[in-house]
Amino acid sequence: MASQKALIIPAKGSPFTLVERPIPTPGPGEVLVKLAATALNPIDYVMRLNGFAVTEYPAEAGIDGAGTIEALGEGVEGTGRSKGDRVLFERLKFSLDYGTFQQYALTDAKRTYKIPAALSFEEASTIPLCLTTAGLALYGPHGPRGGAALTAPWTEGGLEKYKDQPALVFGGSSSVGQFALQFLKLSGFNPIIATASAHNEAYVRAAGATHFIDYHTTPYTALPEAVSKITSTPFSLVFDAISNEETQRTAWGLTGAGGTLAIVRTPVVGEPNVVLDGGRRIAFVWGGVNYMDAEPAGREWADKMYAGVEAFLMDGRLRPNKWEAVTGGLAGIPGALEKVGNLQSSGAKMVARIDSA
Ligand SMILES: NC(=O)c1ccc[n+]([C@@H]2O[C@H](COP(=O)([O-])OP(=O)(O)OC[C@H]3O[C@@H](n4cnc5c(N)ncnc54)[C@H](OP(=O)(O)O)[C@@H]3O)[C@@H](O)[C@H]2O)c1
């Protein structure tokens, strides 16, 4: 049986281990992707550390993948995905065959995006998880998995629908923050205010921020005053892409009546995904469409999102993150993850080239 190199987590808390394991066979509706590049995410770090999201051991981390379709499962032929297509995808299942820290992974054919010709595999690999997280947080339906239920820019009347409403993004240079800024711009929000470190100002502005605040020289305690000098209109949308206790408290304090605070980590300011005081909500999102696929209305929503986002990727209105190379292929991932897991990768996604692992 053909085998591949894979970086596995043998048991809870144990170090990553490089092994040989079989190349899996795609099931109905699935494709086998020969991975060229994988991007690292903070979740990969906690999966190894404490078993977050792990359903069985040995486990495979790795959420973001970009590569070439190698084989089609039953029923995929004729659906728009063919052998040899360059695709990017977010891991949708947590079992071993679906992780992206290995040379071949399975995924759902419908939940792949074709990679625009202008993008490298490395660039493409920066997109999946954090784009989905930002997209679901802003446009996903209200419900237990979060979503501010804004009209998405890929639906009729959605482009620039929120013209001249202010938005605030905490962590504009993070991967999630970058995609939140791009979506908010497509939705027409203005001004769009973002926090980051000074050396990332140009990156944050390029993604869509109209105003930039350095959170080192303007600490979060001083942010409300700094923001009041830019706009006096209450925020209907605040996106906290960092979501530590300090950012969440500051962000919630700035969320206007009827507005939504989107967060990406465990809520500390109130119950998520219900209506709170002043008609406000905390949208605590889980950045995967797998739960949407569990019922027909969710599937329909996700189908539209995939078609819409693919069109924006193709015409360049959605762009990948800046990236930095992980040296050493799969073997270099554990070292690089220490930095990523502590949010110390500043303004760049760490990407490992794994086709020559
Ligand atoms: N719920 C979900 O489904 C989901 C999905 C993806 C990610 N997440 C979570 O979202 C968070 C961000 O993930 P990511 O992949 O986007 O991270 P990332 O890109 O690796 O984050 C690094 C960035 O964080 C910024 N940062 C750190 N502390 C900050 C602060 N106090 N204020 C503003 N910016 C700050 C840094 O900005 P500067 O260098 O400019 O200072 C740096 O550019 C993580 O906690 C992650 O676990 C959740």
Question: How would you sum up this structure, described in words?
Answer:
- It comes from Dentipellis fragilis.
- This is Enoyl reductase (ER) domain-containing protein.
- InterPro entries: ADH-like_C, ADH-like_N, ER, GroES-like_sf, NAD(P)-bd_dom_sf, Trans-enoyl_RdTase-like.
- Pfam families: ADH_N, ADH_zinc_N.
- The protein has 357 residues and is an alpha/beta fold.
- It folds into 2 domains: 3-127 and 320-353, Quinone Oxidoreductase, Chain A, domain 1 (Alpha-Beta Complex); 130-284, NAD(P)-binding Rossmann-like Domain (Rossmann fold), CATH 3.40.50.
- It is built from 9 helices and 16 strands.
- The strands form 3 sheets. Strands 3, 5, 6, 7, 8, 15 and 16 form a 7-stranded mixed sheet that branches. A 6-stranded parallel sheet has the order 11-10-9-12-13-14, with helices on both faces. Strands 2-1-4 form a 3-stranded antiparallel sheet, with no helix packed on it.
- The model has no long low-confidence stretch (mean pLDDT 96).
- It binds NADP nicotinamide-adenine-dinucleotide phosphate.
- NADP nicotinamide-adenine-dinucleotide phosphate binds at residues 41-43, 129-130, 133, 170-171, 173-176, 195-197, 200, 215, 241-242, 247, 264-265, 285-287, 340, 343, 345-347.
